Q: What sequence folds into this?
């Protein structure tokens, strides 16, 4: 959950003006514990049956294997996926934490008005 805290407080991420929603197969009880402990103020969704993750086709990545990591999905205002990056895939070393600056740069490349930076 430190990933959420660090992204939300990163000025570069804030400048992108995108909404951050955390989705996890963790139970509501586990989420509540983490949200309280890390003082998370962004929306969080408990998805224990992976219904939402499946709708966005995230289950083909690390989430399907139970490998810890993060998959980021950028969705445009019309609900279309414009970018997916999985940081839990074996070829990425199964990163559980992604530094805010490189992630912000990856997202910025896909946003109108930011891509030329």
A:
């Amino acid at each position: 959950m430190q990933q959420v805290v660090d992204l939300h407080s990163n000025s570069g991420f804030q400048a992108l003006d995108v909404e951050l929603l955390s989705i996890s197969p963790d139970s509501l009880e586990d989420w509540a514990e983490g949200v309280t402990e890390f003082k998370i103020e962004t929306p969080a969704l408990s998805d224990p049956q992976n219904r939402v993750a499946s709708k966005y086709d995230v289950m083909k990545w690390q989430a399907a294997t139970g490998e810890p990591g993060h998959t980021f999905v950028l969705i445009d205002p019309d609900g279309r996926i414009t970018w997916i990056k999985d940081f839990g895939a074996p070829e990425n070393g199964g990163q559980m934490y992604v530094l805010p600056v490189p992630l912000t740069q990856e997202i910025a490349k896909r946003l109108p008005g930011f891509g030329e930076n």
